């Protein structure tokens, strides 16, 4: 091949180039970040975490190194809805109108919520949430083995107890009977909360709440089989309080966690 003996041995013993060495360093950090995210982060969030640590690299490079290392994020899956409208319920306005933009100045002024289900070995576990629209933080939640109004009420009570808002709050939901009942309306009025609802059968009118459930099911629920409601409840607590609110990077918040976003705004 017309290559000199000295050139051959020089090439064989040459040290890796600077880019290869940087790739190796990045791959190590990428693996650590991916593991720290419980195997949930894809290239965009891994890239954001690297940038926060001071690493200079492109998202495509991160995607290439993740693929080479056999790493991938979790992708969302669609599920069944639990909305049961009450045809005789009082009509309420839509005070949100699909405006779910983050706003550091609007924390604890607009909340949204919904109910979903989780299959367990003992039957369905139902989860109701209250999410702060401004910061994406889950400020209240409750679980139950039933789909009644009390479940939604317990989540709203938890949010009020946790946050203690100083002014009026808008709470947005779908038209499920749990949220349009007289009991729920009385609870909201007693706590200076204005109720808002989207249109029937239009999931985009409550997109933020729907998005959280899609993330929860993708990152937690679908990962294993839940033998009992109590085990599932404990896992949800760990996910919301130990990961989603405090550590998970949200693209809509500039790749900050909800807690970090609120602290920065304060």
If you average the pLDDT, what whole number results? 87
The helix/strand order is HHHHEEEHEHHEHHH
Number of helices: 10
Could you say which structural class the secondary elements and strand pairing correspond to? alpha/beta
Helix share bin: 40-55%
Number of strands: 5
Shape: elongated
Widest sheet, order of strands: 3-2-1-4-5
Main beta sheet: 5 strands, mixed
Low-confidence residue ranges: none
C-alpha Rg (nearest Å): 23 Å
Query: What fraction of the residues are assigned to beta strands by DSSP?
Result: 5-15%
- The end-to-end span amounts to 68 Å
Sum this structure up briefly.
By secondary structure, the protein is of the alpha/beta class. The protein has helices at 5-12, 18-36, 43-52, 59-69, 149-163, 177-180, 182-190, 207-219, 229-244, 258-265, and strands at residues 110-120, 123-132, 138-144, 169-173, 193-197.
């Amino acid at each position: 091949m017309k290559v000199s003996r000295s050139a051959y041995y020089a090439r064989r013993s040459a040290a890796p180039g600077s880019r290869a060495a940087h790739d190796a360093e990045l791959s190590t950090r990428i693996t650590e970040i991916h593991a720290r995210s419980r195997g949930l982060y894809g290239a965009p969030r891994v890239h954001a975490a690297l940038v926060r640590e001071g690493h200079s690299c492109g998202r495509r490079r991160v995607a290439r190194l993740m693929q080479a290392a056999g790493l991938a994020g979790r992708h969302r899956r669609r599920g069944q809805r639990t909305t049961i409208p009450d045809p005789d319920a009082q009509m309420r306005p839509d005070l949100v109108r699909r405006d779910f933009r983050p706003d550091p100045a609007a924390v604890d002024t607009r909340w949204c919520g919904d109910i979903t289900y989780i299959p367990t070995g003992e039957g369905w576990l139902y989860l109701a949430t209250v999410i702060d629209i401004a910061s994406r933080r889950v400020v209240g939640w409750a679980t139950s083995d039933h789909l009644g109004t009390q479940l939604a009420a317990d989540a709203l009570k938890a949010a009020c107890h946790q946050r203690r808002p100083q002014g009026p709050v808008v709470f947005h939901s779908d038209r499920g009977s749990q949220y349009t009942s007289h009991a729920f309306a009385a609870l909201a009025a007693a706590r200076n909360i204005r109720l808002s609802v989207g249109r029937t059968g239009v999931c985009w009118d409550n997109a933020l709440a729907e998005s959280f459930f899609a993330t929860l099911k993708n990152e937690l629920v679908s990962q294993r089989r839940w033998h009992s409601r109590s085990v599932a409840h404990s896992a949800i607590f760990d996910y919301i309080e130990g990961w989603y609110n405090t550590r998970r990077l949200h693209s809509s918040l500039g790749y900050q966690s909800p807690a970090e976003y609120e602290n920065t705004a304060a």
